[in-house]
């Protein structure tokens, strides 16, 4: 279809032919050809096939979602015609109550009135029976007949009383049922459409000739639709090679008012947002700090109201100097403007659909997502990775071993943040979260605790020695020994077990600390080496399968100039099945005898 031109406008204005009017219902006259689902919204494409008459055609399509975003609607077409006008509006609702509601109300009212009439008649009969009994006397009833008369009266009275109770209960049930139906009525299809699908699109189309199957596509965005990523991560510690499987899933929820039945679905990871202008920096001003003024006692003055002839009494103080009497605000001083925090826009990541930062996922086949606000899971893809497994423990804080996997995303998909269910050797261990991971990027995935590695953190031993240096210098030296035992109960070997402990760090030159076992050097700067020099002995082979080093050595994310100065010692341990290893940390602390040392 084309855009309007002057010739077609003249034809429209000069023609006396009545326009061809088409009234359609969106869900019945179209099919959804695509749903692009973002975080918080969805873009829907509906395809309509219409029979257009030559000349002007007024097409009205009702039944669009209550969550439609009006400014997002656009109309496209194919055929020998042009689109002249598009109007989005609320579907007019009839002011007269529907026939089904009026008829139902009349039946309900009639039934209630009948019950009320029956109750009134039964009560009148009961009153008449009591009146008859009061008219009996010795002149018209023999004494021998009183028993029969009383028995007959009791029987009739009981029947009338039971009838009245039944009618009262039936009326109460009918009234309660009527109230419940008024609260949650079962609406017919046309009223459901008015409630949940209240919008309509009116399109003015000029056709050059009769068109049997002209195509019109309406693309629009709706809110109340969302998807989040979730993962199932399964790690197998008993095999090598492809030992980690990640199942990438999408959890979809939508409550737009229109169900998606048999639709092709595309998942978008980019978040549409406003405020795409890059920020700017304001001047950073330094000035002499002035003392805060001392608050003065308040007095009251009259200030004219801004838009009326009245005056209002407000507290006055020296801090109000500079406020105009008209009530109009003045600009803040520069110092206050500099100290005020500027509002920040929500950060937006822009990327391509190649998986660099954001990604587009096309779900194979067709799916059904009803408008019920419930979670519906679909699988995006499944991947197998060769991920090194790592174990680490800090027994001084907690004598348990934690396991993690270093996973490199070798797929073409970008992982977006989401929750992950973790399974190790077929058993569920924990729920964790996955960060944003681009292709070829590595991330750490915690796998929970490994109870098959047993760690014993023995009681620390301390020996105190008093020594004398020269004639007057007396010092105290304490030697600490910490033993750690680790036992591998697995039937498979363990590699990459990291054990971390700590020695104290001195902030006083009078307090000296020496590491005795393992004997590790300090960083390059501490021992006078440059980056080009080779640092020998930064790792010490303590025993077969055990290497000692300062924690952070060789780690690109750690400043190597401070390695060792934080006192953290690490052992890299490899264990055979059913093997135990003993680690020893020994150090001494020396300080003047009369110096009170905190923490020693």
Automatic annotation (TrEMBL):
Residues 35-137 form the DUF4140 domain. Signal peptide: none annotated. Residues 217-593 form the DUF4139 domain. It comes from the Eukaryota. Pfam families: DUF4139, DUF4140. This is Mucoidy inhibitor A. It comes from Hypholoma sublateritium (strain FD-334 SS-4).
């Amino acid at each position: 279809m084309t855009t309007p031109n002057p010739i077609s406008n003249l034809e429209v204005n000069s023609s006396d032919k009545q326009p061809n009017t088409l009234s359609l219902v969106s869900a019945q006259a179209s099919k959804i050809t695509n749903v692009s689902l973002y975080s918080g919204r969805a873009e829907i494409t509906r395809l309509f096939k219409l029979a257009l008459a030559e000349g002007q055609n007024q097409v009205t399509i009702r039944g669009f979602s209550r969550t439609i975003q009006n400014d997002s609607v656009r109309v496209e077409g194919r055929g020998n015609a042009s689109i002249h006008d598009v109007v989005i509006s609320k579907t007019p609702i009839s002011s007269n109550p529907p026939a089904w509601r009026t008829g139902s109300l009349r039946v309900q009212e009639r039934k209630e009135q009948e019950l009320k009439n029956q109750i009134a008649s039964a009560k009148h009969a009961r009153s008449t029976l009591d009146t008859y009994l009061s008219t009996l006397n010795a002149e018209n009833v023999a004494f021998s007949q009183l028993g029969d008369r009383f028995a007959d009266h009791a029987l009739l009275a009981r029947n009338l009383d039971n009838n009245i109770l039944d009618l009262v209960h039936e009326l109460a049930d009918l009234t309660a049922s009527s109230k419940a139906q008024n609260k949650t009525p079962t609406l017919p299809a046309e009223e459901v459409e008015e409630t949940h699908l209240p919008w309509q699109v009116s399109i003015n189309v000029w056709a050059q000739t009769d068109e049997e199957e002209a195509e019109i596509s309406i693309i629009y965005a709706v809110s109340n639709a969302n998807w989040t990523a979730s993962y199932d991560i399964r790690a197998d510690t008993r095999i090598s090679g492809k030992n980690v499987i990640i199942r990438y899933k999408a959890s979809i929820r939508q409550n737009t008012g229109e169900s998606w039945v048999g639709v092709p679905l595309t998942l978008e990871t980019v978040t549409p947002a406003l405020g795409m202008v890059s920020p700017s920096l304001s001047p950073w001003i330094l000035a002499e700090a002035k003392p805060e003024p001392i608050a003065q006692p308040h007095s009251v003055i009259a200030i004219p109201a801004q838009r009326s002839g009245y005056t209002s009494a407000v507290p006055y103080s020296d801090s109000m100097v500079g406020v105009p009497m008209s009530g109009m605000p003045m600009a803040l001083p520069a110092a206050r403007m500099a100290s005020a925090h500027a509002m920040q826009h929500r950060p937006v990541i822009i990327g391509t659909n190649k998986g660099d930062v954001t990604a587009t996922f096309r779900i194979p086949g067709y799916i059904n997502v009803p408008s019920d606000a419930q979670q519906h899971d679909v699988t995006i893809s499944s991947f197998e990775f060769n991920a090194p497994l790592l174990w680490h423990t800090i027994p001084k804080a907690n004598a348990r071993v934690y396991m993690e996997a270093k996973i490199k995303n070798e797929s073409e998909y970008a992982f977006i943040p989401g929750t992950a269910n973790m399974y190790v050797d077929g058993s569920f261990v924990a729920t964790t979260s996955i960060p944003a991971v681009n292709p070829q990027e590595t991330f750490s995935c915690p796998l929970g605790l490994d109870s098959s590695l047993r760690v014993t953190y023995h009681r620390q031993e301390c020996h105190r020695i008093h020594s004398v240096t020269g004639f007057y210098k007396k010092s105290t030296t304490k030697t600490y020994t910490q033993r750690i035992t680790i036992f591998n109960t697995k039937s498979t070997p363990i590699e990459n077990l990291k054990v971390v402990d700590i020695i104290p760090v001195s902030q006083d030159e009078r307090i000296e600390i020496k590491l005795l076992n393992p004997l590790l050097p300090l960083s390059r700067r501490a021992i006078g080496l440059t980056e080009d020099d080779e640092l020998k002995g930064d790792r010490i082979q303590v025993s077969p399968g055990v290497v000692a080093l300062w924690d952070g050595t060789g780690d690109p994310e750690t400043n190597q100039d401070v390695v060792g100065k934080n006192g953290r010692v690490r052992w890299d341990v490899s264990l055979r099945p059913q093997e135990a290893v003993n680690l020893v940390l020994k150090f001494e602390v020396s300080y003047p005898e009369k110096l009170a040392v905190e923490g020693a």
